[in-house]
Structure formats: structure tokens, C-alpha cells
Amino acid sequence: MIPIIALSIIALAIILAKFWELWRFRTQLGKLSRHLHTLVEDGNLSGALHICREHNSALGRLFDAALLYRAQERVERFCSAWNPWRSRTSS
Questions:
Q1: One digit per residue, pLDDT tens: the chain, 91 residues?
Q2: What is the pTM of this model?
Q3: 52: Cβ–Cβ under 8 A, 6 or more apart, which residues?
């Protein structure tokens, strides 16, 4: 009987810890996304990346990767559209 009670208490502690972690994630998501949204709207991608790297969590790393991917995609699109060495054929 005692092992069942002890394991039930441990299980309850794990459930509460996970609930606390998800609650913190939810509150951090709102704050971080609002802050990053204003920075990106203003065109301050380097500031947004700095905030992501300061925010030492999985959420910060996720936003960091998304911003880097977005910036890389724009550079590749620009470079493919503007290529002074491509052959120009006249029709």
C-alpha cells in the first residue's frame, strides 16, 4: 500500500511540474512573439535575432531558426533575380 501512495505522489508531482512548464511556455510565447513582431515589422531583423539568442529556451531557438530561414530565403530570391553574369538573350 505504501509504494502505491509514494508512486502516486511522485506521479502527481510530475504532472504538476509539466503543467507549470506548459503554463510558463504559454506566457513566454505571448511576450516573445509580440516583441519580435514589432521588431520585424520595423525591419530590425538583427535586433530580433539578438532577442531570440538572449532568450535561452527552445522557443527562442525556434524563432531564431525561423528568422534565419526567412532572411536566407530573401537573399536567395534577390540573388536569383539580380544576377549580372547571367546570359541575356534577346527574343
A1: 899 999 999 999 999 999 998 888 888 888 888 888 898 888 888 888 888 888 878 888 888 888 888 777 666 666 666 655 555 554 4
A2: 0.55
A3: 36, 60, 61, 63, 64, 67
